[in-house]
UniProtKB/TrEMBL annotation:
Response regulatory domain ranges (all copies): 3-119
Matching PROSITE patterns: RESPONSE_REGULATORY, SIGMA54_INTERACT_2, SIGMA54_INTERACT_4
Organism: Zeaxanthinibacter enoshimensis
Protein name (Swiss-Prot/TrEMBL): DNA-binding NtrC family response regulator
Lineage: Bacteria, Pseudomonadati, Bacteroidota, Flavobacteriia, Flavobacteriales
Pfam families per UniProt: AAA_lid_14 (PF25601), Response_reg (PF00072), Sigma54_activat (PF00158)
Length: 387
């Protein structure tokens, strides 16, 4: 059933619209509001599939209703109702996000066609949003252990919010994968996901990398350049190995989180940014704080939600699933059929000490697929796993 709201201060026109829509389709549930303020209040409290809204109304006009509603529920289509003198305004509302407009008195065929089209579009938008929230197979978290189930549960809760997340764990455990999951299951999934490896960037360049610079800020700054925070606007920035960031850069990141503003190196001009920050580290940040290497105030800003990714040795029951997953992915990359692993081969791999975690397991699986027999055997593992 499609839920439609009619916002119109002229009672005669409002009744006509409600009657036409109710008689057109029994699946239309039509509600009404007699002025803009009342209509916006209903939009806040209810989930509508479509809103028909007059432009000229007392207390709050249709343009204001549209603008406020778009902030609250941008997926709800608006059809604006315009008098003859409101046509220019009606056209302008489409630039503000309205689906379409109809003139008074409404033409029956035009009205019903526009309503059907708007509802069809709403359905497509909702379906697309659901599909976007399904995590891409490229970033699928494989495992059924209680540790992985706990992480998945946290992600499902935190992803729809803008809460900052700090991911901890050893190298190779899949911290980047968790960050991708959070982004892809969030409302920012259509926007950029920008990764920054703080450990791989020299300390003297990290500020320029994150915040950009203006021409002449330093010797090699031959032109203005935007940084990663600007590139991630409306999306997510992933600060990997954040524990390796210089104290100077930490201070600037703290300001960006506090004020939603950054400034490029070489200028004091503020640039507003809307960025969700997800960070990761393999370091003990509490120890780094005690040693003066990491700002405690930045830690508390980043660690709104803490996610600890377990070592592979702590979730050995997931190893058979991971082997099967990697075998399938590697076969796809090589353009061949997936190789099978014998039960004894899998059991032997389950017992190894995986100091390099999932990254090491994947490398070993690929090596065994290349060097092992048609079915990877226990002997293949002993010969080629190099443990």
């Amino acid at each position: 059933m499609s839920k439609i709201l009619v916002i119109e201060d002229e009672s005669a026109i409002r009744r006509v619209l409600v009657k036409i829509l109710s008689e057109e389709n029994e699946a239309y549930q039509v509600e009404e509001a007699e002025h803009g303020a009342a209509g916006l209040d209903l939009v806040k409290k209810n989930d509508y599939d479509l809103v028909l809204c007059d432009i000229k109304m007392p207390r709050m006009d249709g343009v204001e209703v549209l603008q406020e509603a778009r902030k609250l529920k941008p997926e709800v289509p608006f059809i604006m109702i315009s008098g003859h003198g409101d046509l220019d305004t009606a056209v302008n509302t489409m630039r503000l996000g309205a689906f379409d407009y109809i003139s008074k008195p409404p033409d029956l065929n035009r009205l019903l066609t526009t309503v059907r089209n708007a509802l069809d579009r709403k359905e497509l938008v909702v379906e697309n949003k659901i599909l976007k929230k399904k995590v891409s197979k490229n970033y699928e978290m494989v495992g059924k252990s209680k540790e992985i189930d706990a992480i998945k549960e946290i992600i499902d809760k935190v992803a729809p919010t803008d809460a900052r997340v700090l991911i901890t764990g050893e190298n190779g455990t899949g911290k980047e994968l968790v960050a991708h999951w959070i982004h892809q299951k969030s409302d920012r999934s259509d926007a950029p996901f920008i990764e920054v490896n703080c450990a791989a960037i020299p300390s003297e360049l990290i500020e320029s990398e994150l915040f950009g610079h203006v021409k002449g800020a330093f010797t090699s700054a031959v032109k203005d350049r935007a940084g990663k925070f600007e590139a991630a606007n409306k999306g997510t920035i992933f600060l990997d190995e954040v524990g390796d960031m210089s104290l100077s850069a930490q201070a600037k990141v703290l300001r960006a989180l506090q004020e939603n503003k950054i400034s490029r190196v070489g200028t004091d001009k503020d640039i507003k940014v809307d960025v969700r920050v997800v960070a990761a580290t393999n370091k003990d940040l509490q120890k780094e704080i005690a040693e003066g290497n990491f700002r405690e105030d930045l830690y508390h800003r980043l660690a709104v939600i803490l996610v600890r990714v377990p070592a592979l040795n702590d979730r050995r029951e997931d190893i058979p699933l991971l082997i099967e997953h990697f075998a399938s992915k590697i076969a796809e990359e090589h353009g061949s059929s997936p190789k099978k692993f014998s039960a004894k081969a899998v059991e032997l791999l389950k017992g190894y000490n995986w100091t390099g975690n999932i990254r090491e397991l994947r490398n070993v699986v690929e090596r065994l697929i290349i060097l092992g027999g048609d079915t990877v055997s226990e002997e293949d593992v002993k010969l080629f796993a190099s443990k």
